[in-house]
Amino acid sequence: MLRNKEVRIPLLLISIAWFLYALELSLNIQLFHLGIYPRERLGFIGIFLHPFIHGGFNHIFSNTISFGILSFALYYFIPKVADKILIQLTIYSGFMVWIFARPSFHVGASGIIYGIASFLFFIGLFQKNPRSLIVSLCVAVLYHGMLTGLVPNEKGISWESHLSGSIVGFFLAFFYRHVETTFSQKVHTDLQHDLYKEGYQPLENENIKYHYTEIDKKKTKQ
Known about the structure:
Layout: H1 4-27, H2 46-49, H3 57-77, H4 82-100, H5 110-127, H6 130-142, H7 159-175, H8 182-197, H9 214-221
Helix pairs in contact: 1-3, 3-5, 4-5, 4-7, 5-6, 5-7
C-alpha cells in the first residue's frame, strides 16, 4: 500500500523546480547564477539550490521523469532513510562539484538522479537479498544508458555532477547496507508465516528446553 510520503516528497521537490522555471519564463529572467560555481564563495550556495534550477524545458522535463521514478522507488523500497539519502546526495555530490568541476555554472537535478540510481543499484548488491537484487537489475536495465553521462561526451552537460552523484550513491549504499528495506520486511513476514503454516514456532523463551534423560534413552531402545 502506498504511503503519502512516497508521493508527497518527490512531488514537492518537482513542484519547486517547476515553480522556479515558470518564474523565469514569466519574469523573463535567468536563475542559472544560483547554481554551483566551483571554488567561488558565491557559487557555494548553489550546492543547496542547484537541483531546482534548470537550463530549459527539455532539461527540466527529462529530469522530472527520471527523478520522479527514482525518488518514488527510493521512498517505496527504503523509506527509513530516504530523506537522509536525498539530503546527503545533494550536499555531498554538490560539494564534490564545487571542489573539482570545471569553472562554470552547474545546475539541474541530474547529479541527484545519478546518485539515486547508483544507490538503488549498489544497495541491492551489498545486501545480497534476492528481492532487492531485482531492483538492482531493473535499474541496470532501465538506466544503463546513463553510463555515457559519466564522462565528457557532450558540450553543456555537467558530467562532473553525474560522476559525483554516482560516487556518493555508491558510498551511501555501502554505509546503509544494513538498513531495513521493504523487501527485507516482506521476507521476514513470509518466513514467519511459512513457519507457522508448517506447525513450527520460534522458541522465544530460553527456559523452554527439552531435557534428554536416561529414561528417555531406554525408551528409545525399546
